[in-house]
């Protein structure tokens, strides 16, 4: 098994001179253990043979940035799962829980809220699938499309989970119910693989570029 390291060429700084190299996991692990660098694995001060390089010279930074596109779609997909499960649990709860002599599902407000949550979840799923399709096709705007999917899905799915928990009332915070765990887990999705503020920056810069941005 191998791991990809991003190595800097001698006398180069910043992203220039950053190459991607393959190194055996066993060798990396043994060196870290010998130097007692755990748990701080931020630096591996070793020379890597040029024959281990993958991709062209000075392309390591670009490869690292491109790998984030798939990661952003992955994070968005995780949010879809949490939102779908939360919505399913909320629907089941509203059908059996009663207040003022009738089921919570019979209150028009709850029906309106379910419609909103289902719509947010559905649009999030569609934009994630669309971003994945453009990523596979290597579309010129794949970075901004993945950024759209990431911030749209993570924010809307977070709202779905939060509102689903609201429908459970105080029960939603109890560890007997999984919604409180989903809410804690999904919050970090707006931070991982680039914060949602950075996603907006990526999209904005693409829109202001010379390339025509449109649906393909």
How do you describe this structure in short?
This protein has 216 residues and is mainly alpha-helical. The protein has helices spanning 25-34, 60-96, 108-136, 142-168, 179-187, 196-207, and strands spanning 2-8, 18-24, 53-54, 98-99, 102-103. Helix 2 (60-96) packs antiparallel against helix 3 (108-136) and helix 3 (108-136) packs antiparallel against helix 4.
Could you characterize what this model shows?
It comes from Necator americanus (Human hookworm). Keywords: FAD, Flavoprotein, Oxidoreductase. The protein is mainly α and 216 residues long. It folds into two domains: 57 residues, no CATH class; 144 residues, Butyryl-CoA Dehydrogenase, subunit A, domain 3. 57% of the residues lie in helices and 9% in strands. Helix 2 packs antiparallel against helix 3, helix 2 runs antiparallel to helix 5 and helix 3 runs antiparallel to helix 4. It is elongated and about 75 Å long. The two termini are 38 Å apart.
What is the architecture of the largest domain at the second tier of CATH?
Answer: Up-down Bundle
Distance between the termini: 38 Å
Radius of gyration: 23 Å
The CATH homologous superfamily of the largest domain corresponds to Butyryl-CoA Dehydrogenase, subunit A, domain 3
Kindly state the percentage of residues in helix: 55-70%
Summarize the topology.
Layout: E1 2-8, E2 18-24, H1 25-34, E3 53-54, H2 60-96, E4 98-99, E5 102-103, H3 108-136, H4 142-168, H5 179-187, H6 196-207
Helix pairs in contact: 2-3, 2-4, 2-5, 3-4, 4-5, 4-6
């Amino acid at each position: 098994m191998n791991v990809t390291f991003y190595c800097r060429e001698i006398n180069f700084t910043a992203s220039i001179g950053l190459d991607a190299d393959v190194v055996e996991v066993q060798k990396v692990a043994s060196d870290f253990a010998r130097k007692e660098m755990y748990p701080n694995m931020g630096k591996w001060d070793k020379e890597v043979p040029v024959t281990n390089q993958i991709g062209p010279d000075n392309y390591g930074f670009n490869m690292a940035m491109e790998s984030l596109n798939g990661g952003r779609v992955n994070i968005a997909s995780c949010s879809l799962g949490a939102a779908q499960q939360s919505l399913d649990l909320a629907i089941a709860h509203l059908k059996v829980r009663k207040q003022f002599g009738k089921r919570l599902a019979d209150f028009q407000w709850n029906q309106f809220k379910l419609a909103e949550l289902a719509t947010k979840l559905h649009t999030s799923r569609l934009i994630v699938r669309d971003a994945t399709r453009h990523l596979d096709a290597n579309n010129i705007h794949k970075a901004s499309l993945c950024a759209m999917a990431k911030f749209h899905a993570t924010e809307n799915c977070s709202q779905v989970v939060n509102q689903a928990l609201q429908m459970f009332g105080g029960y939603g915070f109890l560890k007997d119910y999984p919604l409180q765990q989903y809410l804690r887990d999904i919050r970090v999705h707006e931070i991982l693989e680039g914060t949602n503020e950075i996603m907006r920056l990526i999209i904005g810069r693409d829109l202001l570029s010379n390339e025509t941005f449109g649906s393909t």
